[in-house]
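Q: Start with the shorter request: fold the first protein.
A: Done. Sequence, then structure:
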Amino acid sequence: MVPPVSDDAASSSIASKYDLVVNGWELSLGAYARADMLARPRAIFSFTGAIGSFDVYGENVLLYGSDRIYARESSTLGTYEAYRVENEPFFQSTLGVKYSKSYSGGLSYSIHVQGYYNGMGYADSSIMQSAAARKAITEAIEEDYSTAYRYSDSATEAGMWYLAGSASISGRFGEGDNITRITGSVYALTNFSDRSLRFNPQLKVQVGDEGGKVSFTISDLTSIGDVGSEYAGKGNMTTPALTVSLLNSEVSLQASVPISLNADYSVKKVQTKFSVIWNAIEF
């Protein structure tokens, strides 16, 4: 039993969970319900295990009705209205696979891929690029759900199909204070429903051991998609950067060059940025 999240007793909720292990697989069964139905009733099944050398995990959620407040074009041209879908089943599912390997000589690598189907999302989530559509959702939350639904994520994670992946390879050279670690990595996220993509390749060289580590990182965070899309909010952009971290990353210096691109990927605007970060206090 979860107490109300607001002054309204109707925002109380109840949840249950049961875990078991079957042939090396960890399985979880759960359920959740909320009195005011703003968060819809759901049943949850998740699992983790291994198939050979691959780690596998997943989660499946069946809901009665959608948590999301949607937007659609109204009868008046150029305007939008908000609505809910409360009496239909929805399904969400995620599946991830990871493989990693390490060798005694210091070489290691890993690959991780995760897919996500969000049945509550839009098949074409480009509607969320419209300021008028987002405003309709915001106004509906503030006017109709101002207390119990204040933190609705109805304007985010609006896609239906997602894919994420990462890969890294690293090596260790030398011993003691003269040790050097070199790591190459990349991650990528994509929302197929609005055709936006974000990826960031990195090359990191770390010199020294505990107490005197210095690292140099070259990266290039890149976003591809329309303005207002989930992973390219500012449109096509690439940002090469060099980061130098000193004193076990207590001090970091970064120089970056954000480059805005046109729809045909020609250069639109070039900026330069410099930053200094000092982690003087740790909690």
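Q: Next, the second protein, separately.
A: Sequence, then structure:
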Amino acid sequence: MLKWHLRADRTYLINLDGPVGPVIGCGNDLFQALQVIRLELETSGWLIAVQGARKDAYASGMVRDMIGASRIYILRTGQQVEREHLVDIFAEAPPDSLGTVEQQKSCYRDWRLSLT
């Protein structure tokens, strides 16, 4: 079970009862807090099957600032992101779309290069 809330100091806290026991992630937005949890799970070989853990998903600065990254973009090589590319960060994701935090960062870098 995954639960999250916005704390009084305006940071986000995610609690996950995962395969290795309880895992907690905190960050300036939900995407950052989810990355903390994912890094913890990755040390045990686990991935979490949510949209925010897809290799091709990333949170723009605008969605981080405006909505705490509760929705994130699915990146398409060579295309600017558009509103219809937004998905709920915690919606279920197909296992074959998942990746590590490093794979996600690499995909984001590749996507940015594809726009030039």
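Q: Describe the second briefly.
A: The chain is about 30% helix and 25% strand. The first strand starts at residue 2 and ends at 6.
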